Amino acid sequence: MSMFINEYCDALDAGRFSFSRQQSSRFAKEIANDFNPIHDVSAKRFCVPGDLLFAKVLASKGLSTEMKVTFGGMVPNDLELEVIARSAGALTINDLKGKEYLAAEYAGDVSNDQGLIEKLTRSYVAFSGKTFPHVLVPLMKENNVMINVARPLVIYESMSVQLDTLALQEPILKAAGAELSVNGKRGNVTLHFQFEDQGKVVGKGSKCMVMANLRAYEQADIDQLIVTYNEAKASYQG
After folding, report:
1. Which helix (H) or strand (E) holds 237?
2. Per residue in 226-237, is it b (16+ CB within 10 Å) or e — as a string?
3. pTM exceeding the 0.90 threshold for the entire prediction
4. What's CA 68's distance to the chain center, in Å?
């Protein structure tokens, strides 16, 4: 496993692992630039970032040209987890009672170059962390809906990656559009992105999220949520 992910994951016996509140919160804030209060060390309803689980999969099993990851539940801190190989091209992350929190499918070429994996992980996670307010707020306004600002909840559902090659030098991610579909009080968000390296497009991907408890859009409430978010960010970085 790379030294990069070691900072944010505790290695246990028999290949098992866990994530502490401190590790998870540092990853969210310092790597993903994500100040969602659900990742605060003091959060009552704490959750390990989904991007940290994805980073763990990449570090452990390598980077494939085709990957799809589906998230099955919110991971609490200090939960003992293990990677279960389901087949040559599939794995899950489970707790010791067998509950599944992540399922990954992968195909194509594989690289275990930890330097490349760290570069791609950092690039993806940094892109992912820009979701709020940069992407979600315009989408909510356009569709005249918003999350519950008192208890904002956006759930990471799945992500997929298709790379043309693994011969990459400095891969970066760039946004390639986003959409929100609303069904009652539920919203499904899809973020599209593309991979670029040395000025060339070398792949694409998407990230899907669910927004719960939607209500009518109120600009004043959203403005206050953004202020609160930015204050938390400034306080941590200051």
Report:
1. helix 219-237
2. eeebeeeeeeee
3. yes
4. 13
